[in-house]
Design a protein that fits this description.
Helices cover 0% and strands 52% of the residues. It is an all-beta fold. It has two domains: 12-274, TolB, C-terminal domain (Neuraminidase, 6 Propeller), CATH 2.120.10; 285-358, Immunoglobulin-like, CATH 2.60.40.3080. The strands form nine sheets. A five-stranded mixed beta sheet has the order 2-24-23-21-20, with no helix packed on it. The N and C termini lie far apart (47 Å).
């Protein structure tokens, strides 16, 4: 059997307010990565042979959700990192390769983006550059997606120890791993000529996925006490950590679909957790609605008692729009591409997320 990635063990005190997830798709092993487009989940299986390195899909609306083989023999080495940008599905492997395929291509053509860059873990895209974390060499590198593939990479930041997941919030790239011996999450601004590194979270073995909803950063603690944690990145350091889901089994990927969170667990398949976003002070969120639910230009919120902060984000958790909203004040979404989006409203006594469709 191929060598599987060994991850650092860590322990953090459990937050008793957190809850456990329920099985969603079972009977699977060695599952990594997780992306979503419309109502379809995409994830990968690490196999004992090349032919068993598989990309699966799951229809989350199905009565009995089932994993279906989307592509097999996708990599000569264990796949690990995964990123869906539009219709382009990028994935990395532990052999130092990055590939891309168009999920709408019925021929399932695979293009090698780059090779020979050691173990590739995290993938993120910003301003048409693909950023990659290389676990063995301790680097963040980038490559221009306008170049002819396969292409070469440029170093962005070096001196890390085992960088794993990466994710953007604006121009700031968040990196899980170690720097100067501190496990946790760190960040750099990729627009700086010589990026300086800042510690965001310390003391966690964070080798799972990082994702954002507005100013909230969610991340996985993979072993020891496996769980999904969130912080507010605007908090003073060190931030307050909130356990969202506990008692997970080696979680290596997760995605949001409204208040639902889907999680890949390495040895058991995919689980599902639904967040309760209602605060203890808020007893009537059922009165809040957005309309029209399918729109070409504006959405309007009805039922707000006072001005609130809002964020619009993609199905991948990417922050797209933000501002303040009052009752029945329209939000212009005409500039967004066609697709599914989420509106999150957060104030002192409300936290509300609603899916809408941009036509």
């Amino acid at each position: 059997m191929k060598t599987k990635l060994l991850l650092i063990i860590a322990f953090i005190t459990l937050n008793l307010a957190a809850q456990t997830a329920t099985p969603f798709v079972t009977g699977l092993v060695y599952q990594v990565g997780l992306q979503i487009k419309d109502n379809t989940l995409y994830f990968m299986q690490q196999g004992t042979t090349d032919a068993e390195n598989i990309i699966y899909t799951v229809d989350i609306t199905a009565t009995t959700p089932t994993a279906t083989v989307f592509m097999d023999n996708v990599s000569p080495s264990n796949p690990y990192g995964m990123l869906l940008e539009g219709n382009m599905l990028y994935y990395s492997d532990l052999g130092g390769n990055v590939f891309v395929t168009d999920i709408t291509d019925t021929n399932h053509t695979i293009t090698q983006v780059i090779s020979g860059i050691q173990r590739c873990n995290g993938l993120a895209i910003r301003n048409n550059y693909l950023y990659i974390s290389t676990f063995d060499t301790g680097k963040i590198i980038k490559l221009n997606l306008n170049d002819t593939f396969p292409t070469t990479a440029t170093d962005v930041f070096t001196g890390l120890s085992g960088p794993a997941s990466i994710a953007f919030n604006g121009d700031e790239l968040y990196i899980s791993g170690a720097y100067n011996g501190d496990d946790g999450i760190h960040k750099i601004n990729v627009t700086d000529t010589t990026p300086a590194i800042t510690t965001v979270v310390i003391g966690d073995s964070v080798l799972g996925k990082i994702r954002f909803i507005g100013n909230e950063m969610y991340y996985m603690q993979v072993l020891g006490a496996p769980k999904l944690i969130k912080i507010d990145i605007t908090d003073a350091f060190p931030p307050t950590k909130t356990d969202v889901v506990i008692d997970l089994g080696v979680p290596l990927g997760f995605v949001f679909d409204g208040n639902d969170i889907y999680i890949t667990e390495y040895y058991s398949g995919i689980s599902k957790f639904t967040q309760n976003t209602v605060s203890v002070q808020d007893t009537n969120l059922n009165t809040i609605a957005i309309y029209p639910n399918s729109t070409t230009d504006f959405i309007t919120v009805n039922g707000l008692e006072n001005e609130q902060n809002y964020t619009v984000y993609s199905v991948l958790g990417k922050h797209l729009l933000q501002g303040k909203i009052s009752n029945q004040t329209p939000i212009n979404v005409s500039m967004l591409p066609k697709g599914i989006y989420f509106l999150n409203i957060k104030g002192e006594n409300k936290n509300f997320t609603k899916k809408f469709i941009k036509l």
